[in-house]
Design goal:
The chain is built from eleven helices and 14 strands. It is an alpha/beta fold. The protein binds adenosine-5'-triphosphate and magnesium ion. Magnesium ion binds next to helix 1.
Length: 307
């Protein structure tokens, strides 16, 4: 059963097409991810599906309900917005009561559910502290909890771990895995490829408002095969990229932190040509590397996820 069904959805802001005829489905129980750089159209998509922004055209249903019916959908979904939706002058508990009462969650249920969620996120001891005294990562964790109080069927999370330190990020990841194992369907956006890779059953790669590929992380990486990647430790010079890219079969060359990274058609055939081309430059090492989702992204869009 599909919890989310999107068909040719479009959002235009004046002349700008922020979301450009995207189509995808999310199955019940899935963790589905949107992986894309700044400005790709991730938040715009989330905002349309969660009835916070009107679509320009196309269709979408969430929990079987057309997104025109905002009131009905809001009861069934949880939303973790990219911008925090907390009241800084209240405690965590007070934020939870306020939020729960907006959704008509009974007080005893709020109490029980709040403590369970606060505990899972490592915030139980701090529940009576003012949110303004929380660290950034603590606020982000509380932001996630708020979205779950009314026991939604599907959770939308817009970049839930941006800017977090690795430990706090790991806590959110474990939490997401746990609620998913208990049956929650999750749609999350991210520009961290490790996050998409670790959490998502399927990923849509989105760039400039368009979905460029949808598949499991494994299949996305496997499709890159026949596209080998070489890492060569070498000094940079002005003609380096131009020289290696002139070798037939080298599709792209990037240089970063002392390392030349080459995307090539066939390692066995090309290694000699590349070595010959670089023969007047000292090479410290050559190794072949397994593709990451970042490599998939580069191969599809010609760009990096982050600059
Ligand atoms: N209210 C708005 N009015 C005009 N343009 C907008 C508006 N909201 C978003 N945009 C534009 O739409 C495009 C997509 O923006 P969106 O916020 O969906 O990107 P994103 O993928 O969420 O990026 P980020 O990773 O930075 O959060 C951008 O070019 C953005 O400037
Ligand atoms: Mg965004």
């Amino acid at each position: 059963m599909n919890i989310v069904e999107v068909d040719g959805l479009v959002k235009q802001f004046g002349m700008l097409t922020a979301v450009d005829e995207i189509s995808f489905d999310i199955k019940k129980g899935e963790i589905f991810g949107f992986l894309g750089p700044n400005g790709a159209g991730k938040s715009t998509t989330v905002n349309m599906l969660t009835c916070q922004l009107r679509k320009s055209s196309g269709n979408a249903r969430v929990c079987g309900i057309d997104i025109k019916n905002a009131k009905e959908i809001r009861e069934k979904i949880g939303v973790v917005p990219q911008e925090l939706s907390l009241n800084d002058l209240l405690t965590a508990s007070q934020n939870l009561y306020l939020y729960g009462s907006l959704y008509n969650v009974p007080r005893n249920v709020i109490k029980e559910k709040s403590d369970e969620l606060l505990d899972a996120m490592g915030l139980l001891k701090r529940k009576d502290d003012l949110v303004k005294n929380y660290s950034g990562g603590m606020k982000q964790r509380l932001n996630v909890i708020l979205a779950l109080l009314h026991k939604p069927d599907v959770l939308f999370m817009d970049e839930p771990t941006t800017g977090m330190d690795p430990q706090a990020r790991r806590m959110i990841w474990d939490f997401i895995k746990r609620i998913n194992a208990e049956g929650m369907t999750i749609f999350l956006t991210t520009h961290y490829m490790e996050e998409a890779d670790y959490l998502c059953n399927r990923i849509a790669i989105i760039d400039e408002g368009k979905i460029q590929a949808i598949d499991t992380p494994r299949n996305l990486k496997r499709k890159l095969k026949g596209q080998d990647i070489l890492e060569i430790q070498i000094e940079f010079d002005e003609r380096l990229i131009e020289d290696v890219e002139s070798v037939d079969g080298v599709t792209k060359a990037l240089y970063d932190k002392g390392m030349l990274k080459l995307y090539i058609d066939d390692r066995d055939k090309l290694l000699l040509d590349i070595a010959t081309k670089l023969s007047n430059r000292p090479i410290k090492s050559i190794s072949s590397v397994e593709p990451t989702l970042e490599d998939v992204f580069i191969s599809i869009t010609g760009k990096r996820l982050r600059d």
